[in-house]
Amino acid sequence: MGEEDARVAAGRVLAALREAGRSEGTIRRYQVMLDRFVAFLAGRGLSGAGEQACVDFIAGQTGTRLGALREPVADTDVQLVRRPTVLMAEALAGREVVIDRPVIPVRDGCPARFRALRDDYVASCQARGNAEAKDKAASRFLAYLDEAGAGDLAALGVRDVSGFLLRQRGLRRKTIASMRSCLADFLAFLAATGRRAWPAGCRRTGTCATSPSLTCGPLRRSAGCWP
């Protein structure tokens, strides 16, 4: 891997930035840092951009040496240098350059036994947009079910859904409304893919066979009681 390969990788990063709709000012800032990284690799005769090379480059640019490339850090200068450095390293390794992928891996709040299901759902959301918010809502709901010991999705009842939403009472009203919408979408996905029927104890007429006192407001629509 020579300097020409590094410049090709830098070009891939810049192309990905343009495709992601980043401003020309942002692209120019990235290009300056990518050019410096290319020169750094060539100057050291490095055949790749491993973690140590990235850490050394960031230290040379900012004066701050990270213990690990992807460790959390509040220093803005480090963040501004690390982002293009990581993208360049991924391009050099032949991986897809994803501009919006976080440098620090996000902790997955979805229980391991539900992740394949969650991943199928998120994949179905990609074309419809807002996949990130739906991912968070589904993961949070599945974590609640796991904590409550409700492992059989086919036996979901309205109390499972209402219990989850009651747990969110401390959130802002707008956030809860968004979560209800996302949860309704997830429940519809479960029904459409045969993973559950309508929640046990619910009538599609809008009344609850188990708890008639529950009215058909946004909570019950979120539970999938209405088609």
Topology:
Elements: H1 3-19, H2 24-44, H3 51-62, H4 76-92, H5 115-125, H6 131-148, H7 158-167, H8 173-192, H9 218-222
Count up the helices: 9
Q: Fraction of residues in helices?
A: 55-70%
- Kindly give the count of domains: 2
Order of secondary-structure elements: HHHHHHHHH
- The whole-number mean of residue pLDDT values reads 82
Summarize the biggest pleated sheet. Answer: none
Helix and strand content put the structural class at: mainly alpha
Q: Overall 3D geometry?
A: elongated
Radius of gyration (Å)? 24 Å
**How many strands in all?**
0
Question: How much strand content do the residues show?
Answer: under 5%
Separation, N- and C-terminal Cα atoms: 57 Å
| Uncertain runs | 200-227
Defining traits:
227 residues, mainly alpha, 9 helices, elongated, disordered C terminus
Describe the structure.
The protein has 227 residues and is mainly alpha-helical. It folds into two domains: 3-92; 112-222. It has nine helices and no strands. The longest helix has 21 residues, at 24-44. The radius of gyration is 24 Å and the shape is elongated. The model is unreliable at 200-227 (pLDDT under 50).
